[in-house]
Structures are given as structure tokens and as C-alpha cells.
Amino acid sequence: MENYNFLIEKLKELGLTKREAEVYLTLLIKNGATVKELLESLDVHQPQLYNIIQSLIRKGFIRVSSGRPRVYTASDIGVLIDVQKMKFDVLKNTLQEELAKIKGKPEEEGPYISMVRSLEGVLASIIETINAAEIEIRAELPATVFEELKPYLLSALQRKVNLYLLVYPSTANFEEFERFKDQVKIKTSELGNFLLVISDLSKAVYSKRRFLSIHKLPVSNTEVYGYVIHEKDLLLRLLNIHNNLWIKAKEVLCWVPRPELYPKVFVEFSMALNELETLLRLGYTPIVTVEGWDVKGEFPLKVKGKVRSVNRFGIVSNFLLECEKGTLTIGGFDAEVEDIEAQKVTIEKIERQKEGKE
């Protein structure tokens, strides 16, 4: 059988040993067999075969007839996986409840950067990051990983989280995301920089593109590693690289700016700036609320006003806000030349500009 070894490896992922997987697959191919028939087909001693059979029966992978000679048949793999999923769902709920009781509140933050090993570890960290998002997710994903994460991204959209997604190469299907078109911006590129998922600009998961490339020799799942990043400065440096590709990438799905779309909240400043620039170009005046820090006085503040312009020069990008305090310049993280360092920008509503007044 051409894909025999592949099937053996996949059955091992379900918790079977190599020998157990061989017996299960043989029974499946033969549509049932006796011990004698199994001994003729497999290179295994009879006492060992009996032990394997008993183990497979206990795990639910095979059934045995009541007559003589006994005939062993393979259980349906789909049903077995469904049963495992139910068991894991119960286990997940139980552990979450019990661990929450003993976890308590951490007295200090965890490490700024931590390493995770194996593809499963990277995927688990990404899912945890997606599930924690409350406002927005930014992601750059290989198409194969995107397919794995689809259910979790869709669940985030159901929670009203905004999604900014770049997938490479452009082979993925995005039909399920069209019903959330007022919350998503999706682009594709033939090549990506890395795997990157960022939640609310507070937590990111990063891994090398090399580990997941379809154009290079496959890497063992155990050799894959990635990083969970809480360090905001490093996170934003990665975002700068991502943004350079985002600008050039092909747009697949994007909301259409219009009055009924707002209010809309932005944590990541570059996306807020892009949205404001688009609105101004379309002839709208955005009314926004900015939450952040006074750059010179270093105290928190919150201001509301009308956006008059978006400015980009060199490495500095900001927008001009007309409010009760006067005209203020609003910058992003680590702003130095602006009046305010924005941590959250909410476009409350938009108004049509009046000729000669706006």
C-alpha cells in the first residue's frame, strides 16, 4: 500500500504503538480477521499479538465476535476520534475549572519572551493567543496553518474581534469569512516573512517560515519551535516587517467604509492610521476618541475630536486631531515628537466633509 507508512504514523498520533497501528490497519484492510490470519499477514509472535489485540480492544479500536474462531474487526476511525474529542472536551472543562481555583492572580507578569517546542506547541500557543483577543488580531500565516486555525479565527470574529490577516501562498479559501466582511481585512501573497499572530498588541506568537514552507524539505514536527512574545517593542519591530508586505499584498476581502460601520476600535496604530487616511481620501471627517499618554507630561489622558490630516514623513507617522484642547498630534507606541502616544483609537463616527468648511 502506497501510503501505508503515512497511515501508521497518523494512527500513532492517536495513541497507538507501531505494532498496534499495524494490527488495526491490517484488520481494516481485510475487513476482519482471525488470529491465525493476522499471524500469516504480520511479522509478530502469537503471545505478543494477543497482548496487542487486548490493548486495542481496551482502547476501543477493534471489536471481537462471540463465536469460534473469534473474528476481530476494526472500529470506524471517525467515531473513535469523535469519542476522543468528547473525552477531551470534558477533560478540558474540568481542568479549566479546577486550575482556575488554584491559579489565583499572578503577582507579576510572566517572561517577556518564551520558547515553545514542536508544531503542536506552536499551534497551541497561537490558539491561546487568538482566544484571548478582545479587540483585534493581526496575523501572517502559511496557508496550511491558516486551514488549521480557521475555526478559532471564525470564533474570534463571532466575538466581534476585528481580523487583519495575510495568508501565503494564495491558495486558501476564504468563503466562510465573507459573512464577517465588516470585521475583516484579508490579503494574500505568494511568499511570506514568517508565522506571526498578534492579539490586541499585547501578545504575539512567532515562528520561522522555513519550518512550514511547502517549497523546502519537510521538517519533523518535533524540530519546529517558536516564541511567545510579550515585549511590545520587539512585537512592533516584527509588525514593521509585516506592514511592508501588507502594503504590497493582494486584497481579497475588506470592509467598505461607510457611516453605519462605526464605531470601530483600533489598538494597533498603523491600522488606525490606514483607516483614517482612507476616510479622509473618501471625503469623510472622522470623529475619534484617543486613549493614551501625554508625551511630555507622561500622564494618561483621553481626548475626542475631529481628524484633520494624516502625516507620514520618514519613520514618523501621526494624525492631527482638532479638539477642545486645540490641535494635537497623535502618534503610536513610543511616540516622541507628537503630543499624545495613542494606546487605543476609536473611530466613533464619520461625517461628510462640507466644501469650503472642512
From TrEMBL:
Residues 112-348 form the Transcription regulator TrmB C-terminal domain. Gene3D superfamilies: Winged helix-like DNA-binding domain superfamily/Winged helix DNA-binding domain. Keywords: DNA-binding, Transcription, Transcription regulation. The keyword Transcription regulation applies. InterPro entries: TrmB-like, Tscrpt_reg_TrmB_C, Tscrpt_reg_TrmB_N, WH-like_DNA-bd_sf, WH_DNA-bd_sf. It holds the Pfam family TrmB. Residues 11-76 form the Transcription regulator TrmB N-terminal domain. One of its GO terms (molecular function) is DNA binding. The keyword Ion transport does not apply. Belongs to the transcriptional regulator TrmB family. This is TrmB family transcriptional regulator.
